[in-house]
Design goal:
Radius of gyration: 27 Å
Helix content: 25-40%
Shape: globular
Order of helices and strands: HHEHEHEHHEEHHEEEEHEHEEEEEEHEEH
Structural class: alpha+beta
Number of helices: 12
Number of strands: 18
């Protein structure tokens, strides 16, 4: 037995790792895998020169960004027509996206990316659903932003029109018309929008009942119900708060945020209820926006979280940014996040749950939800930031924007508006008390 043991021990040899685990993580942590897409000339000589020039440009551009790493350069010939079927490299790039190898695509313009409006929107939506953005340099559009789909619809329509076989006279006429400001929008393809009285696009007003907490000539505060999106965005072209405000206020909404978000100066999540303020003129909009920027607006929320908090009150001061692995989520992100501060205090304790008040010092996306989850007390019903199953039938997180306090833009007096708890919230508190 001793001889056998000795033989085995001689065969065991420890091989040290060539790279430490932390070194492997450091190469990819926080880095976005960026690919570039080009369309080059059909002439063989021009094609080679065009491809090499674009390859050099995008390679340098990606290398110059400390937060990016190269995920490939894809190029197709400048094939006439509008279909994507003949674009071998384009389809190869989309496959790489589906397999999780690319986080962002950069390309020169919408016309280089796709000249068919439907194909362009379908591709953008597919990528966006997987948390992958497309950045069009010429139009300065990032498809992960709120307003991108509307802009992509407009400019891709123009790109498709450019690919039509037009005579020089017709092309000259269109150019003159555009310079004169006579641009024709494809309203049939612009879901949720119509042609306004001034000839510009506007959101379609909808007769949706509003729970108005306060209204005057400058502002309107609404108690937003659960399930309502604040303004039109991808997948939500109607039934939004803006659709309702357009019907109620008519054209009396500030235009600083353009046709996409008239009157909107801040927003809360779809399944968060409570106070939302909209501005009726640009002066009021600038005043409220400045208060939000200075963090002087009093914003108090009510929430129910999992678990029993140890302290009666506390402060969470942790930066929030995009989740490093899931671009559709936010997370505490010390490398790329922005400062976020949430103050909380316990209102009532239950077995396994705590009813709390949260006061926002900053206003980052999903701030309360991310912060409470980060300390091990995610919100009850939150299906995004909590892995715990709720024993109650809930629609999203138990979070209510109860109080909004601000300096009125005209009177200069402090105004505080309170939104009563929704019925489901009151009922849940009663159940927990029992």
């Amino acid at each position: 037995m001793e001889a056998a043991t000795t033989t085995l021990e001689r065969r065991v040899r420890e091989i040290p790792p060539t790279r430490k685990p932390e070194e492997l993580l450091r190469n990819y942590d926080g880095k976005m895998r960026v690919a570039a897409y080009c369309r080059v000339s059909t002439d063989s000589e021009e094609q080679l020169n065009s491809y090499e020039a674009q390859k050099t440009y995008y390679t340098q551009k990606i290398q110059d960004s400390p937060d990016w790493e190269m995920a490939g350069i894809y190029a197709d010939e400048g094939i006439s027509g509008t279909s994507l079927k003949k674009r071998t490299q384009f389809n190869k790039m989309i496959t790489a996206c589906k397999r999780g190898h690319i986080d962002l695509i950069i390309t020169k313009s919408l016309s280089r990316f796709a000249r068919n409006t439907v194909d362009c929107l379908d591709t953008v939506r597919l990528l966006k659903a997987n948390g992958i953005g497309v950045y069009f340099e010429k139009e300065n559009i990032n498809t992960l932003t709120e307003s991108s789909e509307f802009l992509v619809t407009l400019f891709s329509g123009f790109a498709q029109a450019e690919s039509e076989s037009l005579s020089k006279n017709v092309a000259w006429g269109k150019e003159k018309s555009a310079k004169a400001g006579n641009v024709h929008f494809q309203y049939k393809k612009m879901l949720g929008y119509r042609k306004g009285e001034d000839g510009q696009p506007e959101i379609v007003p909808e007769d949706i009942p509003l729970d108005i907490l306060y209204e005057d000539h400058d502002v309107i505060l609404v108690n937003k119900p659960k399930g309502m999106v604040v303004h039109p965005a991808a997948g939500h072209y109607s039934g939004t708060l803006v659709n309702a405000l357009m019907y109620h206020c008519g054209r009396d909404l500030s235009g600083i945020n353009g046709v996409l978000r008239p009157g909107i100066v801040h927003r809360i999540d779809k399944d968060t209820t409570g106070s939302v303020i909209a501005c009726k003129n640009d002066k009021a909009h600038r005043c409220i926006a400045e208060q939000l920027k200075e963090h002087s607006i009093n914003r108090r929320y009510r929430a129910i979280c999992f678990g029993e908090l140890n302290q009666e009150e506390g402060t969470i001061d942790q930066p929030i940014g995009r989740h490093p692995n899931d671009r559709k989520k936010m997370a505490v992100n010390h490398q790329n996040g922005k400062r976020a501060v949430t103050h909380y205090r316990v209102l009532q304790r239950f077995q396994g749950y705590t009813y709390i008040e949260c006061v926002l010092e900053t206003g980052r996306t999903h701030q309360i939800r991310v912060h409470m989850a980060s300390i091990g007390h995610p919100l009850l019903g939150d299906e995004v930031y909590s892995n715990r199953k709720s024993p109650f039938k809930l629609q999203g997180q138990t979070l209510h924007a109860k109080t909004l306090g601000f300096i009125h833009p005209t009177t200069g007096e402090y105004l505080e508006i309170d939104a009563p708890l929704p019925e489901y919230f009151e009922h849940l508190l009663t159940v927990l008390e029992k």
